């Protein structure tokens, strides 16, 4: 048994994150300004990384803050990133800013979601979508992806169901690649199992005259067309803030814009 080295859990996990990001040992070592020998020793368990080394490596690997805390614990160190409840006093200014963004976006729908795509906040215009969703899908914690693709959800009113479903599943799959979150993997598996009456494109390609994947929703005799923009906090140092995202929907044609403005005045 002499000479056999068993990888320390922190080393093995750092190696997994490096491989997930498709970095060679040389590339990561150069970014972290350490020798490849040192990095190799860390990954194989021959050397235990310092707290600062864990932080440097996870920063260059763009590991999400939640996972950085977990890796610090595995290495024997205390987490450094706070995880505040959304209603905590220290997030009061953040909540006010989000409310201002949401209200300012009326009469167009906007929503704030967490990492798992659970609904956190929304503006009044979101009712344009939620009124088309079965109530059981809106019970807290309401998941906006589930509410979008479930047979009792918005899916039955989406004209381009196959295209929009493929877009959402692709977005979720990319998020899984970034975070390695098993909860998101389970959500992707669930959503993929929902029926879809239309073929799903293997690759997102623009239709005639399209520059974005549109969300086309049938509301009565009308078809509304939207595109969305997703925004995140630029310098988060708190796990909760790092995992929040604002998705703002905009009218993709003049007819949709006119209808939303008229509804806001009614």
TrEMBL record:
Please name one Pfam family that this protein belongs to. Answer: MLTR_LBD
Q: Which CDD domains match?
A: HTH_XRE (cd00093)
Q: Which InterPro entries does this entry report, sorted A to Z?
A: Cro/C1-type_HTH, Lambda_DNA-bd_dom_sf, MLTR_LBD
UniProt GO molecular function:
DNA binding
Domain annotation HTH cro/C1-type: ranges: 14-68
- This protein's name: Transcriptional regulator
Instruction: Give the originating organism.
Output: Catellatospora coxensis
Organismal lineage: Bacteria, Bacillati, Actinomycetota, Actinomycetes, Micromonosporales
